[in-house]
Amino acid sequence: MKIGIDFGTTFSLPAALINNMAATLLPGGSYGMESVFYYDKSQGILIGKRAENRGEKKPSNVVRNVKMFISDTETANFELDGKTFGKKEIVGHIIREVVQIAREEIERKQLASQEIEGAVISVPAAFNIRELDFIRQAAESADLKILGFIREPVAAAISYFNAPSAEDKKTILVYDLGGGTCDVAIVRSDKNSKEWYTVLASDMRRIGGRDWDNILVELIKRKCRAENEDIVFGKRDEEKIRVEALSVKHTLSRLEKVESEVEIAEDIYDFEITRQEFEKNSAELLQATMKMVDKLKDQFGGKIDYIVCVGGSSNMPQVKAAFQKNYPDIELKLFEPEKAIAFGAAIYAEHFTEENYLSDICKFSYGARYVQNFSKYHDWNRLRIYNIIYKDEKLPASGESVSYNIEDDEKSTYIAIYESECKDSIYLPEDGKRIGEIRITGIEGSKKDDETLLTMTIDKSGLMQLKAVDKRTGKTAKAEIHLDGY
Q1: What SS3 class is residue 459?
Q2: What is the pLDDT of residues 405-459, one digit of tens each?
């Protein structure tokens, strides 16, 4: 059995096709598994709900939202009760627990195919190649075979188009407001073509439900200070407020106001929060996501049949109100907000082949850094980035680059690789971001001015594949990318 995993900032959940219908592989009634890691010397490592419960009592020993720390170069490790854990180790533990939950549910349901062959993992729309490789390594450390990655709003689109009532040959805009990111994609379906689903555009902002949670946390603190301006919030107090903020947010999705309270230093602080108050304080967050939608829709320029909202935070009434105000002529649908991404990943894992597949586009451009006209100017300062693969090219996307030996018998070549949104063929290094270097080795007896042809491919999962050939001898060299650290 192949499974899909929605590795979320707040919750993670596995899914699979059972009797050709997408279903979560979770114990009955579960919303999902909390993407939470906990450690102390007495309990050891805890994951999920147990980690969440324990973390409320000992907030210094818990790690939440680790997915959002993947690209944070300033946070390499977490110190928990005297023990150091790397980010990759924590992600690996969370993924391992998700897979274990899936195995237990497969066994409980006595499904015919009980062995998990591998998984497709969903990722935010604009996760870069380093973030993808990070998750791949973390999953493999958890003994999970990665079948591929799929972008979260694209997975949701596949899930939507496979719903019993879905229409074919439609173009939808998926708005996915999750715990850590807001992802948008425009996807078209056509089951009569080889490319069943075509991604026409996509984008992402690192804004999510946790940012709305933080708004409520600060709002609750202000109300407490209004009663006691000298109040001091310790870590346990911060945790109590965070838990209460989550409760308030969920209640405000149903009611216009909430009467609540928190206990700080044995004092009870009562307060009221209205939906109007919450929405006013979080208006800038919502507006930032709407600007992304506007930009993507304008770039696309075509007809959109439906707007489909997924992700747990899409349940907030302000999301629906914003779309109805901005796009009154486009039908809005809230579709399986908590499950759509996992369902789509499971469908993609089980059904897609070379004959029937998803047509996606490259999110970034990738280029190599060379010295411009070195043979003429011999100036090492004339560094430029030469794009090999361009943003928005159809995946898999390939391109070639040629490097020249400066001396005889060069046994290795090192080429700095840059990632950017630049579509120019040549640009300055400061306009992109270095992600690592390609090392080409294994060419014996090379001569000065020999040419090495590098072929770079970004595969359907967004990962990089490489091939290098000595043009004089025709021999294949070893080419590997070594990504910069996180």
Answers
A1: coil
A2: 766 666 788 999 999 999 999 999 999 999 999 999 887 776 777 888 999 999 9
Neighbour-count burial of 98, counting CB atoms closer than 10 A to its CB (0-12 exposed, 13-18 middle, 19+ buried): buried
Q: What is the pTM of this model?
A: 0.91
Q: Centre a 10 Å sphere on the Cβ of residue 242 and count the other Cβ atoms it contains.
A: 19
67 DSSP 8-state letter: G
In sequence order, what are the residues at sequence separation of 6 or more whose Cβ sits closer than 8 angstroms to the Cβ of residue 286?
Answer: 279, 318, 319, 322
The partner residues of 382 in beta bridges, in order of sequence, read none
What is the Cα–Cα distance from 58 to 239, expressed in whole angstroms? 9
**190 with 169: CB under 8 angstroms?**
yes
CB 403, CB 446: distance < 8 Å: no
Q: What is the token pair recorded at 398?
A: 């390939």
87-108 and 129-141 helices, crossing angle to 10°: 60
Angle CA(396)–CA(456)–CA(372) in degrees, nearest 5? Answer: 135
Is residue 291 over pLDDT 80? yes
**3-state secondary structure (DSSP) of residue 27:** coil
